[in-house]
Amino acid sequence: MQVEVLTDEDGLKGAWFAATIIEPSGEDKYLIEYKTLRNDDDTEFLREDIRACNIRPCPPEIIVVDGFKVWDEVDAYYNEGWWVGVIAKVLINSNYVVNFIEYDEKITFNQADLRPHQDWLNDKWVVPSDV
């Protein structure tokens, strides 16, 4: 099963990473294999036991036709995972400055590396403006 996993690893906290559930590994835990993170010697994809509360289905794709606006909440693909941020500035050629408030950092992204942010609440996907 394809999923996204929230990790508590230093430097990666708050990001969601694509993974595959391999098998249950205990009460409320699953062995997963990341699709992008590799082990320390870079010989295979990283596997680890993750609590069920840190696993969610992959969000459905939302097509963004007219681009994003300032203050839109987005997920930005950065360092192999999806990080929550807010559009701080609209640039030319479908580029955006994204503010990661939790980290006090702003980074420029192309629209291809952004998706509308969605929350997994009560077993369904919710766009923050719908909350």
The structure class reads mainly beta
Looking at the structure, what is the overall shape? globular
Helix content: under 10%
How far is the N terminus from the C terminus? 27 Å
- Beta percentage is over 45%
In N-to-C order, the SSE pattern is: EEEEEEEEEEEE
Domain Agenet: 1-63, 66-122
Pfam families: Agenet
InterPro entries: Agenet-like_dom, Agenet_dom_plant
Protein name: Agenet domain-containing protein
Report what the structure shows:
- Residues 1-63, 66-122 form the Agenet domain.
- Pfam families: Agenet.
- This is Agenet domain-containing protein.
- The chain is mostly beta strands and 131 residues long.
- Helix content is 0%, strand content 56%.
- The protein is built from no helices and twelve strands.
- The chain has strands spanning 2-6, 16-26, 29-38, 45-51, 55-57, 73-78, 81-90, 95-100, 105-110, 114-116, 119-121, 124-126.
- Strands 4-3-2-1-5 form a five-stranded antiparallel beta sheet, with no helix packed on it.
- The chain is globular and about 45 Å long.
- The relative contact order is 0.17.
- The model has no long low-confidence stretch (mean pLDDT 93).
